[in-house]
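hi support,

uploading two proteins for the ticket. first:
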Amino acid sequence: MLRPIVAGLVLTMALLSAARGAAEEAVRVYAAGSLRAPFTAIAERFTAEYAIAVRFEFGASGLLKERLERGEAADVFASANMEHPLALARQGKAGPVVLFARNELCALARGGLSITPATLLDIMLDPAIKLGTSTPKADPSGDYAWEVFRKADAVRAGSRVQLEQKALTLTGGPSRVQPPAGTSVYAYVIQQRQADVFLTYCTSARAARDAVPGASVVTLPPALSVGADYGLTALNSAQTDKALKLVLFILSADGQEILARHGFAAPTRPGQ
């Protein structure tokens, strides 16, 4: 299934290249914030190999999609879901969309909480526990958290409403928490006790745990487990040749190895 999509990307970019002239210097990438670490490493390797610079705009995928819909120019869009790039493709603003990485939701917990996958739902429902999430619609992480709440209702009737009502949408929205420069927003909200438990991507939770003494990462039990598929596309405003090289590099063995090293499931790697 991947080969026809990649072929579609190549054909789309070739047609765009024929219609436009020379490219600008850097490849402009709008990417989900959870991709900052692996994409920074990918860009370093890509630039070293092709002598092409990469300029990133990281943020909540839903907010980035809205900016692209309003006409901001970019070459590549890497979203933490498939829906946002597919929406741009349906609007005629982007080419074919390919699944390039997978993630899962985990719970990041402050130090001092005795918490396991088996007790996670009880703790999230505890009125004394501050439960943090990202913002639904603006950020796929928030949408995935709401999917956890929906699944919780099948485990314990009434859980969905309770969790939705108590959830604190601290990140991903227009009025999100602003941590100091260089500080993970998830580490910051736990350090500042704005949340006792925060539902976010496992990759982000593990990185935040390493920055917060005593914090832990809890895997969601199977009944609450939610996966995240990441979608990649080239915009119709793309600098075609350079964008194509970057897209193919992300899908290559080197690009997928970097994603896997940062904790993502890389679907083009054997066995993934």
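and the second one:
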Amino acid sequence: MLKNPEILEFFDIPNEHFPNHSAQWLLRDNENVRALVDLVFPESSEQMDFSGMVRLESGFILDNLREQVADIVIRVPYRDQSENDGLLIYILIEHQSTVDLTMPFRLLLYMTQIWDAQRREWESNRVPRSEWRFRAVIPIVFYTGDRPWNASLSLGAMMGIPDELSKFVPKFEILFLGLMDTDDAVLTKTNHPLGWLLTVLKQATAPKETLRSAIIEAMSSMNALDDELALQRRQAIGYFLLLIFHRRPADEHEELRAIVNQHIQHSTDKQEAEQMEQTMAEQLMERGVEQGREEGRQQGREEGAVQANQAALLRLLESRFTPVPETVVNRITLTRNLSRLDSLFEKALNAETLEEIDLEIDENR
């Protein structure tokens, strides 16, 4: 399941960033990448050697999209090529609230940046141009947004040009997995934990009973899988617990976590789930204590500001209307609102008599 540092990562992100961050975490695992490719490109996944998968530097996302989008670049050896060759898989994780009509252009831009990074590396290493061989890039869009994807994935569709000009438009295939529009039977056709996890993710914001049913079905199905997928099964269980925390109302947390735990059948899974929940509880307690301390510090700062404003107002009144009656002093001391104290201070600067200040206090009570 998740190690403690990984759990802490999820407590350092806003809830709205959980879909992208968690998808990136899932795809750190070679087996989960293979399962995703099996879903969208089954005819070629058998030719890819995912045991030799290497994650490359990404970061091609446009600055204005970084909060809603994440990307992953992976080099995978291809069985029909030599050891030094391979292909690149570019996975764009999309969780925007609106469908991006410019997706084909964005992917072409990201792909050319990948190839340009190869070119710069060759030039830096003084590789002869006759030996340059750009790797094939397979673009995959993993869309987890709630709205149906109704935009074309063809660059030509963005142009609206006559047919005779279409030969000048770059053409490339985009593999697409729109989570909300994909039937559960398709997601689970390979009987892999990732597919069952995605059926639960589909219901992340659904009514509680719908999510509850999805969790039970997923847990029951994963329990029957071979032990060779035990790691991915434990990842899925950890994911369910984190999803409940980040995507569900607080008053549902205890019940939904209990559903997950009740349907864990393997002892190792149960032990790791318990350790994870303990870490989450400790983290929540620690965050709660720190929040309480900050609230206390804020309250102290506000109290200090009130006292400072009261003292400044009294000094001003004493300098202008000596002596200041004790009744006025007491009434100012009982005034705790900073904006009212500011208003009284402004009035005291121009008031001709103390009675004007007294009247102002009455009007602001």
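thanks. also noticed: Residues 59 and 71 are 7 Å apart (CA to CA).
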